[in-house]
Amino acid sequence: MRLPISLFVLLLPAVAAADGLADLRTALGRLTATTPVHGTLDLTSTSRSNEEDKTNEGKVSVGFEIGEGGLHIICPRAMLTEATQEARAEARDPERSTPVQVGAGHVRPLDVAALLDGAAALGVLLESAQLVQTKPASLGGRPAHLLLFKVVPKVSKSESKHMKKFDCALSVWVGDDGTPLAAEESTSAKASFLLISVEVDQKHTWTYARNGDRLIVTRSEENNKTDGLGQHETSHTLKVVRVE
């Protein structure tokens, strides 16, 4: 049976999308994250609310090691000493800034593990993603392919009752061999609880580098904005991973 040319043309985008998603999943499957690595994680953060007169800033640098024995996060002695000094100063004056304590609050083991196994973290996002377009692109002057996804995560029945709006788009840049080079996720959501309405806008970008069979997030940047209950909050978090 011969397909009409017009029908073949209509089917091409769907076929290309399916191939693009399959190729990306195959590339991620090769990145099994068994290569031991160690290095440093530099983190800076800022957050501000309309109820506060100052911006809360965080800044911290920690070491890491990951391999056969799992993940180890290393807090330098100088950092621990500074955190203690901040706690003492804050006890005397609650208005004192505590950048080490604030920054350390963002260093969570599972988040660090996701930075060091970017393939697994990206694979989780793809579980709820539908590929809508693939097109040629460039990234940092290098040729690449851009995969555009619509993300529709599954939520529980109790959560769906409160969700009024959810729009999420994921963009992934891949090299000629299919390895991800960068990704960006943009989310806009609105939820209501009784008479309370909350709106959230988020943008998260990742830059990747391959190390052995690991896909490492060398740079992660996240911007959040939340409005609700008469409050307006913004935050920015930057994580830079340096492998030694």
How would you summarize what this structure contains?
The chain is of the alpha+beta class. It has helices at residues 5-30, 77-92, 99-104, 109-116, 118-126, 157-162, and strands at 37-49, 56-67, 70-74, 129-139, 142-151, 163-174, 180-193, 196-211, 214-228, 231-243.
Distance, first to last CA:
59 Å
Number of domains: 1
The gross shape turns out to be globular
Mean pLDDT: 88
Order of helices and strands: HEEEHHHHEEHEEEEE
Helix content: 25-40%
Query: How many β-strand stretches?
Result: 10
Q: Helix tally?
A: 6
Q: Order of strands across the biggest sheet?
A: 3-2-1-10-9-8-7-6-5-4
Low-confidence stretches: 5-18
| C-alpha Rg (nearest Å) | 21 Å
How would you portray this structure in words?
- The structure is a single chain.
- This protein is an alpha+beta fold and 244 residues long.
- Helix content is 29%, strand content 50%.
- It has helices spanning 5-30, 77-92, 99-104, 109-116, 118-126, 157-162, and strands at 37-49, 56-67, 70-74, 129-139, 142-151, 163-174, 180-193, 196-211, 214-228, 231-243.
- Strands 3-2-1-10-9-8-7-6-5-4 form a ten-stranded antiparallel β-sheet.
- The relative contact order is 0.17.
List the helices and strands and how they pair.
Blueprint: H1 5-30, E1 37-49, E2 56-67, E3 70-74, H2 77-92, H3 99-104, H4 109-116, H5 118-126, E4 129-139, E5 142-151, H6 157-162, E6 163-174, E7 180-193, E8 196-211, E9 214-228, E10 231-243
Antiparallel strand pairs: 1-2, 1-10, 2-3, 4-5, 5-6, 6-7, 7-8, 8-9, 9-10
